[in-house]
Design a protein that fits this description.
Elements (H helix, E strand, L loop, with lengths): L7 E2 L8 E11 L5 E11 L9 E4 L4 E7 L2 E2 L8 E4 L9 E9 L9 E5 L2 E5 L19 E8 L4 E4 L2 E6 L2 E10 L6 E4 L2 E8 L5 E8 L8 H18 L7 E7 L6 E2 L4 E5 L12 H16 L8 E2 L5 H19 L2 H20 L11 E2 L8 H18 L1 H15 L3 E2 L1 H12 L4 H8 L5 E9 L2 E9 L14 E8 L5 E10 L3 E6 L7 E4 L8 E3 L4 H10 L3 H22 L5 H12 L5 H8 L4 H10 L6 H29 L10 H21 L2 H9 L3 H12 L5 H11 L3 H13 L6 H9 L9 H12 L2 H4 L5 H16 L1 H7 L11 H15 L6 H11 L1
Parallel strand pairs: 2-11, 17-18, 18-20, 21-23, 24-30
Antiparallel strand pairs: 1-22, 2-3, 3-8, 4-7, 5-6, 5-8, 9-10, 10-15, 11-14, 12-15, 13-14, 16-17, 19-20, 24-25, 25-28, 26-27, 26-29
Helix pairs in contact: 1-2, 2-3, 3-4, 3-5, 4-5, 4-10, 5-6, 6-7, 9-10, 9-11, 10-14, 11-14, 12-15, 13-14, 14-15, 15-17, 16-17, 18-19, 19-20, 19-21, 21-23, 23-24, 23-25, 24-26, 25-26
This protein binds tryptophan and zinc ion.
The site of tryptophan (TRP) has 12 residues, from strand 19 and helix 2.
C-alpha cells in the first residue's frame, strides 16, 4: 500500500487557510497532452490561523509553469500536491496562475478528466479535481468558476451559463460559488434533446439531454422525469432552479450512477437511456429516481454543501430521502416504501452487521470514495424519515425552510442540520443525534402480555458492538404501532412510541379482546424487530392491517420463518402459508405491484443474514435448496391461480412505463416465474415469444433461466441485442444470476472470455463479477472457485480503476458468517488482494477493514 494510506480524522478538521474568490480555467483539450491553465484569486481566510503556507492538492499533474501575482514561483510538487511557504506569499489577497499538462486518454480510473468513446468528461467528487489542476480540493472552499474550453469537438460544456462561443472554443460562467467537486466539463460529438421549463420565479430554463449520435430516441423518459422533478421541488420544498440552462450528459464509462455537477449533471448512460424495447420497468423507475436525485442535489448538496467529507450524509441522506418522497408521490407510497426497506435490509443491514460497519457520519477514513455506502445514503435517509416522524410534517417543513434560509451558500455539518430541527420543533435532539454517530442496526425486542383487557408491551433495545465501537448507548427509536382486533378491524390506530432507554413498558387497557399487535408500521425505524407472532396472527395482519408496509411485512415474516425452518429442519411450507399467499395473489382489491412484492420470497442472502443473526452458521447450498423447494411447493399448490393471474395481468395497448402498467407486468412476471416451477416454463415461453417490450422479454427469459431452461431464448436474445451495450449488460448478468450454483463460477469465467466482455467498463465488469458475488450459493461454492475468480478480477481491475474495484470488493463483507473452511478460503483471497505491493489505497483500505 502507498504511504498516503494514513487515516483522516473528523476531529482534526481545520478551516481552510485561504479562500478562493474567483476561479478562471482554460482547457486546451488533447487526448494525451491536455493543457489546463488556472488563475485563482486567493485571500486569507479570516476564520483561520493567519500566516499559514499555501497548500494546493494536485495528483498526476505535470507542472509547466506557476506564478503568484505575475512572478514565477519555483513550486516543487510531490505526489499529493505542492506547498508555497507563507514567507513567499504576499500579504492579503493574491493571484495564483499555473499551467499543467494531463493525459485524459490514459485515465482508466474514470476520476478527474477522462475519455469515454472519444468524448471528454470529468468526475470530480470526491477528490478528482486535484487530478485536473492544483487547488485546495475540499468542499468548504467555494468559489465562482469561469471556464474556457478549446477543442475541435462540436459540443463543449461546463457548469453555469454559456457566455460566448466560436469555432473551436466556448466559455461558461457559473456565478454560484461551488466547491471543486462540483466542477464538470464535457466535450464531444453529442446530440441534444431539448426542452424548456419555466420556474415558479419566472425563469426560462433550457433543458438539454446530451447523448451519443444514435441514442437520441431514448431520452424522452429522462426529460419527462426531469421536468417533473423540477416542478416537484418547487411544489413540495419551495426550491426553484437557479441557472438559465440545465444540461444532462450520458456517458458509457462511469463509476457510479450519476453526478450532480452544478448545471451539468453527468450520468451513467444506463440511468438516462430508455426505450420500451431496451429498458425494463425497473430501468425506467431507476432513471426517474436518479434524474430526480441529481436534480434535487442542486439545493441539497450544491447550494448547501458539506463542510468536509465526514458530513457526506448531510447531502446524500437528505437527497435520497427527497428522491424517495418524490417517487412515492409519482407512483405508490406503499410500494415504494416496501421496496426501499427491502434494499435497506439487503444492503445496509448487511453492511452494518459486518466488518465494514460504520456510522452515518464516520469518524475516520483512508479513502473517502469507500464511504459512498448504503449506510451514508440509505440509513442516512432513514434518519431523516425518523426526524420527520418525531417532529411531525409541519415542523419538518419549518425545519427545512430554516435550513435553506440560514445555510444557503454555506458548507455545513450534521450539527447545523440537527440544530434546525431542534429550533423548529423546540425539542432537544441530542439523543437522536447518536444515530449519526453510532454504527450497527439496533435490535428491538417486543414482548406481549395479555391480562383482563390490558395489553402490556415490553420493548427492549440493544445494539451489538461494531468495529471500533464496543459500547453502544440507547437510541431514540420511534416505533409506530397499531392494534388489530381478532376480526381484522383496527382497534387502535397508529401511535408512535418513543423508545429512549434499554427497556420500556407500555400498557393499553379496556380492550374487548386480545388484539394482534402491528408494530413498526411503515418501518418507522431502521431496526430489526424481534416479535414472536403465530402464523395465524401474521395471516391476520397480512389480510387486514391498515398499514401496507405492515401487511407486506407480515407475509414476509411468514415466509422467512418457514424458509428458516426448511433450512434447519427440512420442513415444508404448511397450508397456512399457502393459503395466505393464495389470498394475496388473488385479491383483486390489492395493487398488483404490492401483490408482486408479497409473492416474492425472501432472498438467499437475507436468509443467510437472519440465520446468522439467530446464531446459526448459514449453509448457502442448504438455503438455495430450501428456497427452491419452497418455490416448487408454492407453484404446485397455486398453479391454477398463477396461470389465471398471468393472463389477467396482460397490459392491453401500447407499452407505457407508468406505475399502473408496470405493477401489472410485475405481478404477471412474478406469477409466470413462480409458475415455471410447475409448468416447465410454458407460460413464460409464450410471454417471451410475444413480448414487445424489454420488461416482458427479459422477465420471461429469466423466468425460464430460473428453472434451468431458456437456452434457446438466450441465444435469440443475444442475436437480437448483441450491438446494444446496455441490453448486453443484462445478457451477461442474467446468465450469472440464474446459473445453477455449482456452475456459476464456471459460467462467469466463460463470460469473461466473451469478446464483448470489456472489463474496463464498470457496468460490464459488474454485470459478471459483482453479479457472481451476489449469487450466494454460486459465489460461496465450497471449493472456493467463486472467491478465486472474483479476487483475480478485482486485482486486475484495481490496477486500472481502484474506485470501481474497491466497491465490488464488498461482495466479501459477509465472510465471517460462514463456516471455517469458507472463511479460510476467503481470508486467503483477501490477503492476496491486500498484500500486493501495488495494491491501491482504495482496495487496501477495504481489504484491510474486512480482514481486521
Ligand atoms: N454524488 C453522487 C450522487 O450521489 C455520487 C458520486 C460520488 C459519484 N462519487 C462519485 C458518482 C463518483 C460517480 C463517480 O449522486
Ligand atoms: Zn447523491
Amino acid at each position: 500500500m502507498r504511504d498516503t494510506a494514513q487515516p483522516i480524522y473528523l476531529a482534526d478538521y481545520q478551516p481552510p487557510a485561504f479562500l478562493v474568490e474567483q476561479v478562471d480555467l482554460t482547457f486546451k483539450l488533447a487526448p494525451t497532452t491536455t493543457r489546463v491553465i488556472s488563475r485563482l484569486r486567493f485571500s486569507p481566510n479570516p476564520d483561520a490561523v493567519p500566516g499559514q503556507d499555501l497548500r494546493l492538492d494536485g495528483e498526476g499533474l505535470r507542472l509547466i509553469a506557476a506564478s503568484i501575482d505575475g512572478v514565477t514561483v519555483a513550486a516543487d510538487p510531490n505526489a499529493t500536491g505542492l506547498t508555497v511557504p507563507a514567507g513567499a506569499l504576499p500579504d492579503g489577497a493574491f493571484t495564483w496562475e499555473a499551467e499543467v499538462e494531463i493525459a485524459p486518454e490514459g485515465n482508466t480510473a474514470l476520476e478527474g478528466l477522462y475519455m469515454s468513446n472519444g468524448m471528454y468528461c470529468t468526475q470530480c467528487e470526491a477528490e478528482g479535481f486535484r487530478k485536473i489542476t492544483f487547488y485546495p480540493d475540499r468542499p468548504d472552499v467555494m468559489a465562482p468558476f469561469r471556464v474556457r474550453i478549446e477543442s475541435d469537438l462540436p459540443v463543449l460544456l461546463s457548469n453555469g451559463n454559456p457566455v460566448a462561443s466560436g469555432p473551436g472554443w466556448a466559455e461558461w460562467d457559473d456565478p454560484h460559488p461551488k466547491p471543486s467537486y462540483l466542477f464538470a466539463l464535457v466535450a464531444g460529438d453529442l446530440r441534444a434533446t431539448t426542452d424548456r421549463f419555466t420556474t415558479m420565479e419566472g425563469r426560462e430554463v433550457e433543458l438539454n439531454i446530451w447523448v451519443r449520435p444514435g441514442d437520441e430516441g431514448r431520452t424522452a423518459y429522462a426529460m419527462d422525469a426531469l421536468k417533473r422533478s423540477m416542478l416537484w421541488d418547487e411544489q413540495v420544498y419551495g426550491r426553484a432552479y437557479d441557472l438559465d440552462i440545465f444540461n444532462v450528459v450520458a456517458v458509457d464509462d462511469f463509476n457510479m450512477g450519476a453526478m450532480e455537477n452544478k448545471g451539468l449533471n453527468i450520468f451513467n448512460s444506463r440511468y438516462v437511456l430508455a426505450s420500451s424495447a431496451t429498458a425494463t420497468d425497473g430501468d425506467f423507475a431507476a432513471i426517474e429516481r436518479i434524474i430526480a436525485h441529481e436534480y434535487f442535489h442542486n439545493w441539497t448538496g450544491n447550494r448547501i454543501t458539506c463542510r468536509d467529507w465526514f458530513q457526506l450524509s448531510l447531502k446524500e441522506g437528505l437527497t435520497v430521502f427527497r428522491d424517495q418522497q418524490f417517487m412515492g408521490d409519482m407512483r405508490s407510497h406503499a410500494v415504494k416504501r416496501i421496496e426501499d426497506v427491502l434494499t435497506l435490509r439487503a444492503r445496509q443491514f448487511r453492511e452494518d452487521a459486518g466488518p465494514l460497519a460504520h456510522p452515518v457520519r464516520p469518524e475516520s477514513y483512508v479513502e473517502i470514495n469507500n464511504f459512498y455506502t448504503a449506510t451514508v445514503y440509505e440509513k442516512g435517509a432513514e434518519l431523516i424519515r425518523m426526524l420527520r416522524l418525531l417532529v411531525g410534517e409541519d415542523r419538518y417543513k419549518a425545519a427545512l425552510d430554516l435550513y435553506f434560509a440560514r445555510h444557503d451558500g454555506q458548507a455545513c455539518t450534521i450539527e447545523d442540520w440537527v440544530a434546525v430541527f431542534e429550533e423548529a420543533a423546540g425539542r432537544d435532539l441530542s439523543q437522536f443525534k447518536r444515530w449519526y454517530e453510532q454504527a450497527g442496526t439496533p435490535k428491538v425486542t417486543l414482548l406481549e402480555d395479555w391480562q383482563d383487557g390490558t395489553l402490556t408491551l415490553t420493548l427492549r433495545q440493544h445494539t451489538a458492538p461494531t468495529p471500533g465501537q464496543p459500547l453502544k448507548e440507547p437510541l431514540l427509536i420511534p416505533v409506530a404501532l397499531g392494534l388489530i382486533g381478532p376480526d381484522g378491524a383496527e382497534v387502535m390506530p397508529t401511535r408512535v412510541l418513543e423508545l429512549d432507554s434499554p427497556e420500556q413498558v407500555f400498557t393499553f387497557d379496556n380492550l374487548p379482546a386480545r388484539p394482534v399487535v402491528s408494530a413498526l408500521r411503515g418501518f418507522s425505524a431502521p431496526v430489526t424487530l424481534e416479535h414472536a407472532q403465530s402464523s395465524a396472527e401474521r395471516a391476520t395482519l397480512l389480510g387486514h392491517d391498515t398499514d401496507p408496509f405492515a401487511r407486506f411485512e407480515a407475509g414476509h415474516n411468514l415466509a422467512r420463518d418457514i424458509l428458516q425452518a426448511m433450512v434447519l429442519e427440512g420442513a415444508r411450507p404448511g397450508p397456512d402459508y399457502i393459503d395466505a399467499m393464495r389470498l394475496a395473489l388473488t385479491d383483486d382489491s390489492l395493487d398488483p405491484a404490492f401483490r408482486a412484492l408479497v409473492l416474492r420470497l425472501p432472498g438467499e442472502d437475507e436468509l443467510a443474514q437472519t440465520l446468522h443473526a439467530a446464531g446459526h452458521v448459514p449453509d448457502p447450498d442448504a438455503i438455495h435448496a430450501a428456497r427452491g423447494r419452497a418455490l416448487d411447493t408454492l407453484a404446485e399448490a397455486l398453479a391454477p391461480e398463477l396461470a389465471r393471474v398471468v393472463d389477467a395481468m396482460e397490459t392491453p395497448g401500447p407499452y407505457s412505463p407508468d406505475a399502473r402498467d408496470a405493477g401489472r407486468r410485475a405481478l404477471r412476471l412474478a406469477a409466470a416465474s413462480l409458475l415455471a416451477h410447475a409448468d416447465g416454463g410454458a407460460k413464460a415461453r409464450a410471454i417471451f415469444a410475444r413480448a414487445d417490450n424489454m420488461t416482458e422479454q427479459f422477465g420471461a427469459w429469466t423466468a425460464l433461466l430460473g428453472v434451468g431452461a431458456g437456452a434457446e431464448e438466450g441465444a435469440q436474445f443475444y442475436r437480437q441485442w448483441q450491438n446494444d451495450r446496455l441490453v448486453m449488460d443484462k445478457w451477461f448478468a442474467a446468465q450469472v444470476m440464474f446459473a445453477k450454483p455449482e456452475r456459476a463460477p464456471n459460467i462467469a469465467a466463460e463470460l469473461t472470455g466473451h469478446k464483448a466482455f470489456d472489463w474496463k467498463n464498470p457496468n460490464r465488469f459488474r454485470s459478471v463479477i459483482a453479479v457472481l458475488g451476489a449469487h450466494p450459493a454460486g459465489f460461496h461454492r465450497k471449493d472456493g472457485a467463486g472467491y478465486r475468480l472474483v479476487a483475480d478480477w478485482l486485482i486486475r481491475l484495481d490496477g486500472a480503476n481502484p474506485q470501481a474495484a474497491a466497491r465490488v470488493s464488498t461482495v466479501f463483507e459477509t465472510w465471517r458468517r460462514y463456516d471455517a473452511d469458507r472463511q479460510a478460503l476467503i481470508r486467503a483471497e483477501l490477503e492476496r488482494i491486500r498484500d500486493r505491493p501495488d495494491c491501491s489505497r482504495d482496495m487496501g483500505e477495504m481489504a484491510g477493514r474486512m480482514l481486521e
